[in-house]
Write a structure and sequence with these properties.
mainly alpha, single chain, binds iron/sulfur cluster, 2 domains, 11 helices
């Protein structure tokens, strides 16, 4: 489609349902065109469609490779070297303060979500409505806000670590080519989306903090982890905020 924004899906959060650019994105649009069966990733129709698209893409890729004399095969030795290199970078990334803290944040957040604190708070809320301490309307509003916050937190809980790992690993292998050739650095784009995810998660935790005063200690700890992560990221990726994401930062 002519009004698709090229590359917009490379620096987004993949939350197509909430995306304000779905109609301008090839990925978002194809998602929208899928039948309910195709949307169900456990459904065979989805995998069949994926395999079919891939087969078509491979024919084009092979044709282009032949034209440019590019060998698409890879030797066992190259494969081994690649895996070892990736393993080394991943290990280094996990040991980096940003890699470690983003992982710890995900674990702590998931632990809190599993600890039934939310259920207990919702039960308390229902009880207040039943006893007439709180109106039904206010109770429903609060429940909806809590649900919204939880969906934001859950969406980004692993995303932050994954994007920071990508940014850290990208930085490790940066040879300056992108800047020398007038491009933005891909790792800055990854760091930027991770930082946006931090901001949104912090907003969601902040709202929960207001609605669940009994959870003050844990929620403050999670907020502090994210704040520290953000400060570390600003130091490690000082140019990330300058990265212009196709579509999102161009309006
Ligand atoms: S840009 Fe929007 S529609 Fe496209 S993949 Fe990302 S979230 Fe989905």
């Amino acid at each position: 489609m002519p009004d698709h924004i090229p590359g917009i899906h490379n620096y987004c959060d993949r939350w197509c349902e909430r995306c304000t650019f779905a109609s301008r994105c090839a990925v978002g649009e194809s998602e929208g065109n899928l039948s309910p069966e195709e949307k169900d990733i456990t459904n065979q129709a989805f995998w069949n469609k994926l395999a079919e698209s891939f087969r078509e893409a491979m024919v084009l890729i092979q044709k282009a490779a032949d034209e440019y004399g590019i060998d698409l095969t890879i030797t066992e030795e190259e494969k081994k070297e690649y895996h070892e290199n990736e393993k080394r970078k991943r290990k280094k990334g996990r040991e980096h303060p940003i890699g470690a803290l983003s992982w710890n944040y995900a674990e702590a957040a998931l632990q809190w979500l599993e600890d039934n604190a939310v259920k207990e708070n919702l039960d308390g809320l229902l009880q207040r409505v039943t006893l007439g301490i709180q109106t039904e309307e206010a109770g429903i509003r609060q429940i909806k806000t809590i649900e919204e916050c939880l969906s934001v937190i859950q969406w980004y809980v692993h995303f932050i670590h994954v994007k920071f790992m990508r940014a850290l690993m990208g930085k490790m292998e940066d040879d300056g080519w992108e800047i020398e050739n007038g491009f933005q650095r891909d790792y800055d784009g990854s760091a930027k989306v991770a930082m946006i995810a931090i901001d949104r998660s912090m907003q969601a935790w902040g709202l929960l903090y207001e609605l669940m005063p009994d959870e003050e200690d844990t929620l403050l700890r999670l907020l502090a982890m994210l704040q520290k992560l953000k400060l570390l990221a600003e130091t490690e990726f000082p140019d990330a905020q300058k990265f212009i994401r196709p579509g999102f930062d161009e309006m």
